[in-house]
Protein 1
Amino acid sequence: MNCQKKHSTYFISANAGANLCSCVCIMISLFISLVISSPTVFSQEQNSSSTAPHATTQSWPMFRGNPHLTGVAVSSLPKKLALRWRFKLEEAITSSAAIVNNTVYFGCDDEYLYALDLQTGSMKWKYHAKDFIQASPTIVSGKVIFGDDSGTMHAVDAKTGKGLWTYETNGQIISSANVFGDTVIVGSYDGFIYCLKIADGSLAWKAETESKVHATSAVADNQVLSVACDESLHVLDASTGKSIREVSIGSPAGASAAVVGSNVYIGTYGNQIIGVDWKTGTRRWTFEDPDRQFPFMSSAAVTEKLAIVGGRDKRLRAIDLNTGKVRWTFPTKGRIDSSAVIVGQRVFFGSNDGNIYAINIETGKETWRFETGAPVSASPAVAAGCLVIGTQDGVLYCFGEKK
């Protein structure tokens, strides 16, 4: 990842205050009961747009599973994973898959977006883009939305593979689209963050940073949280794109920000993992291994207690969210750019050593591995009892219950 600064202009706006309204006691009681019954791990999702895609037991609709980019699956996986099918292509698969309506969607370096049957691995359709597809697809409103290396955003009919619209940026797109209301938000190597209408691809707004935007933007509390190569976390109004806050992170970053409440957790190209209160701009803690100075390109998977982050020093780490201290470290024999996914008490990820691993989240001990024979930089997608992931030798694997 090559990050260089350029000139930019920012717009400033204040947070809009929330209006309070009175209600009768019976409504207060109902509201309290609903809050109490909500799962605490996903409590940060309650302020996201109601139309935004979220992982369910049957779906994994976008990179990291939800707008907060937490990398936590809702679906379970069997205790012993078996290979269900493999789909072979001639070029590398670094695009992480999405799973919706029993269909797997993913991009490939052969310039095609593919749709496969989740149960059989048979191809339903393929769509020709303009260049390599490293970005992960996002499924929303019956459309598959993704960017390619030519800088083009595409919207494709999820059922038929028919192209619906395109939008041209002026730089490579590796960032995956996030969703806010009736729009998608994506970063480009031209230094802009774009907000496009889902219906027709028209521009709602764009915001300029000082360098390339590699990471996927998070969306929380009607705000966009975007990490760029200009060493900043950009907090933008999701409706207008106007800057609310710019937080220095001390280094370029290609890993996406994972959101838990008012905090984000980011791995940087400056060999650090940081915890930042994005609502105040305060850095809570910084982790840096003094003996292993390597970048972090893997996006964090987060619970309310831990951040799980892979590094180019070939280690997967569990970091305590309160203290920034390491709970455990798991070594592999290759750099880890694959972003981990948490499934119950297990963590799944790939490594450039050619293995896909499962690690116990409490102990950091290995519970399963599968040797692919090729580097794995894509991230897992988990839904409907299946785990899907691609490799750099062009194979997409699906694991689940033994047939």
Protein 2
Amino acid sequence: MRRFWTDFFIGTFLLIFALVYSIKTIPASGGFDIEYSSYYLFDGERAEEYGIAKGTGYYDSRYYQQLTPNEQAIYDMTLNWTYNDEYIPLKLPNQVLFYSADKKPTDFELSGVRKFISNSYQRAIDALLMDNPQIFYLKMGDGGCVCNYEYRILSDDKECLWVIDSLKLKLVVKDCYKGSVKEAVARLNKSCDFIPPGDTNYQKIKSIYNYIIKRGEYKEGENSDDAYGLLVEGEGVCSGFAKAFKLLCDKNNIPSTLVTGTGFTRKESGEHIWGLVQMEDGLWYGVDPTWDDNGAGEYFLVGGETISSSSKYSFEQSHIPLGDFSSCGYKQFLYPAISDKKYYK
């Protein structure tokens, strides 16, 4: 019995040691940073590097800025896709290295690398889709976009050192847009011809906000999660409303960003998407056209402490942000801090 427990503890120790060693052999420098790329939350100092801090001042509202160089390369390549080639080769700005005990890496040795590449790809796609509501046609999940790679040996002195210096992106279009992506993009662009009246950003944002509310009906459908569904087909759910609002803000050079999280009412709670807009005072304010479909303006340019007259919750109580866009635990993106008070023109 004593021999059993001795063997058990030794085996457990060796397994844990091997797992930790395998992860740490992937360098934490350059494009892929182990600590930064999994479950890493910005502290105050790191946030300052990205200009993300509570108060006034410029903030680049693109989640692109929170990606590593390799992830940014994936983002850029996918954003600039011309719908022609399904497979796109991508040279990585920073090589990814890993070790193996001999010249044929085991599945165990490769498992950490596969997860690392997969997570990095997912982070890039998450940021891309949140930053660019005009990208509505990509198919994700089963049978959708994926990232492939190959590795080659650099050195076999004692241990084998391998390198991944390129990826192959497979881009897949949603079934409903196959063969007609360009036409669908043209229809969305035409729907964005709306020019919001007004001389100030406040007037333009108010016009966009009211236009979105009047334009769309809250209804689930094939494209209701996207700006296309709301602006072209006239129906959408919360993500469709929020993305359509951001798209029109982008077209009019108004700083805005999307926020994912949980929405709370007196009766229920659930997954929700809303927006933040930066005003001339440098502060960010909440907007939620989905919950303002009665046109009352109750969720227009509000602060975190703004109380809803209907729910009696403050905005920060009813809108809880979550930085894990795809709910996969790959990364916590950081949002700009919302103003405490409602915006007054």
Protein 3
Amino acid sequence: MLGDGEVWTSLIFLTPVSSKTEMPHKIEFFNFYIFHLHYNLAAHMWVDNTPSIHIQKLKFYHLSIKYVFGELCVRCKGRLWCGLPKCPILEAAKSYLPKLKISSDSLFGISPPSIFVGRHNYPNVFAGPLVSEDNHAREFSDTSALYGKDMQYILRKTSSLLRASTEINVKKPNGRMVSATQEIAMSIKPLDTELKIEKIGTGPSLDTFFYPTGPRVIPRKIDVVDNPNIPRKVDNIVDEKIKANSAIIELYKYGASVDYLQRLLSAGILGHDKKMVPTRWSITAVDDAIGKALMSEVKHFETVDKIEYYTNSFMGNEFHILLIPGTWEYEMLETWLKGAVYASETVIGEDYEPFGGRKNYASQITGAYYSARLAVLEHLQSRKRQAKVLIYREITPDYKIPLGVWVIRETVRHAMLNKPKNFETMNDVISAIKSNTRVKSWPSKSKIVYNLRHQRTLDFFM
């Protein structure tokens, strides 16, 4: 019997019999190995239950369980780089989510409003609105409302949301489900929604980028009972058919929240070509688009005149944020401590961009990079200042279930509301930060710290 937080999986490796490279272009013969593993979430470790008899002699061919199920899990964050059909860590974590009972094939509830567009089997994905019978779901029409709440509260509220979805070609969206999804996405107020359920699909959903939700249901009918409250500005922009990026920036300046803009992009409402966008992708796309727009303004401001140190923590995520005098640069480092979700060992990651920006995706930090960058840029833009920005995030074992990148965005936003501590030298501020972190080696991974040490005068550190 498996306990809570445990999941079994079988892992199959196909490795070339005779090749000198890890990823040969042509493979003709294979060794075939099967490993029987289960992941224990409470112990944060993989347990190997592989039988002693294999089809051929066991070898990993430049791979090891430590690599495949150690650092790789932190880098992957549920994107299935291991080749398994489901992430065993996320599957194990689902056992901690509240169980939602669906007792009828008819449901009358509310959408906060919120939608979800999947990414698996793209472009044919499952998509639709999120609907809850819990009237308190109205409380989190925006994820900023979840900040400061405890884990159980968040899981109880978000897990009450059913993913009412059908398979949709995101490049050619049409039909009643698409129109209902778009109505809900465009509304700034919760909407009463009625579902006739055809069948219950998969169980609850966990995603690194989005908050947890309840099970997926496939409706045979969906009706949005209320009239959506859509800002006139949104209607005008949709009618103008301007580029999605331009629409996002214009609506953000108009006062639209990041969550609202992510819904619009995901629902296929913005841009010349009305295509739905998987939720995970739309979250990062909006954070990135707004961040770049703010960055173009911030780069023309005067710099801060002292080193400013901000800190904040939420849900086992501890942030240390430095604004350093000088022209814009941005770097984020994060340490996943052993015992945090995904981390069976302690792993440090880093992504950086110079004044001219970066051309590729922040593959080490992923979506958190763009969410944190947006939060700091909002702060700098409001002050009409620029700075070199260095963020160090330490993820502790208290962060056992991924809640979405809104955690990063809101925690950094609230950090920037605090009064900073000022320091004269980098040595002083790094010593102060290290006194409050479990891992002391992180400054050696920082490009900004390295560049300042080698390009600044000694007076800057004395």
